[in-house]
Write a structure and sequence with these properties.
7 strands; globular; seven-stranded mixed β-sheet; 6 helices
Amino acid sequence: MTQDIQLRALEKDDLSFLHKLLNNPDIMNFWFSESYMSLESLKESFDKNKDNEQSREFILINQDHDRLGFVGLYEIEQRHRNAEFAVMIDPAYQGKGYATIATQLAMDYAFAVLNLHKLYLIVAKENEKASHIYKKAGFQTEGEMSEHFYINGEYHDGVMMRIFDNDYWKMASQKNN
């Protein structure tokens, strides 16, 4: 199944799909953001940031070119060789292993193409499914952020996780043996 799933660059005609995800409170609560963004502001942001070297945004697609989700690498720092990873899967495709594949594809890109040293993310402590996916991919807990996010009238803890390039390459070589 993995070979049938790909990342491709976010294009302007993907913005309606992304708009749908960004306005879904069930998704955005785990992105620690308000689910409120107009399509027009999303288009303006796309135009303004399309040449930004500090981010890469992708659409996860299958062999039929169905849009399954979104993957982002943010705050890409070439000097320090690190970036933040984020993923969201369309609710219609959740629970089918796509987040695991998307995470692997993002790591492949970050380490093999961008030559990064460290990829990190922040996940809600209560989001056990996502934490499991990230741990399975090789991410390790780096620290906890107590009462760091305010969602639906309550504060929630976050967990910062990371993977280094040498850990990624070690896992990749073990898969190939």
